């Protein structure tokens, strides 16, 4: 019977210990890490040509517009109502591109920004304001750059950035980073273009991903982070096996006492 109990606990160990990660492999910036093949912080390993895709404006986009000029305040028709950082929703106080991609400015009228990048749009708005304001300096921001992250991250949900672009790793960091059971080798990207949902898949374990076109997100992209198989084992197999073996062990102990 003693051998049977030993065998049962060894079987528990077979299931439990593979799921454990040594603390030394988790803690950052240790004083004496004693890790083989440590990296040299001053040694350049590789370089990558980044491929950020410049976003082009489309109908329905909402922009914030802040203009500074040397025009006296009483004649500056854009001097008020342009602050976007406050209690109210920035999108509600922004300028929405109509179905043709026009932005409607007071006194100026319609300015078409459809298909322009943000730098190009700034130049075009500046040119449109030059006849009305003295030395206008235009600051445009896209308010509707949203993306969604679901799956094995700390905080799932929809996020908004005021950057013109954001990469996959920055997006995941904004969601609190990976969960302990995230499968970093199986990241899915869902992109909606012209009524079509496109699915891409890549690995963040591969440093070549830094040079991929899809390393940078587009508005309304969705990232799906799959779980590792270990999550299913930990949550289902290990728990159930441990419970069954505990019951068997208890019954075996009772049997040795009463038989």
Highlighted features:
single chain; 259 residues; alpha+beta; wza like fold; Outer membrane lipoprotein wza fold like; 5-stranded mixed sheet; 3-stranded antiparallel sheet; 4 helices; 10 strands; 25% helix
Summarize the structure.
Helices cover 25% and strands 24% of the residues.
Describe this structure in words.
This protein has 259 residues and is an alpha+beta fold. It has helices at 2-16, 118-129, 168-174, 229-258; strands at 62-68, 95-96, 102-105, 109-112, 137-142, 145-151, 157-161, 182-193, 196-202, 221-227. It folds into three domains: 62-142, wza like fold (2-Layer Sandwich); 145-227, Outer membrane lipoprotein wza fold like; 232-259. It is 25% helix and 24% strand. The protein has a five-stranded mixed sheet with strand order 7-6-10-8-9. A three-stranded antiparallel sheet has the order 2-1-5, with helices on one face. Helix 1 (2-16) packs antiparallel against helix 4. 13% of the residues are buried. Mean pLDDT is 78; it is low at 81-87.
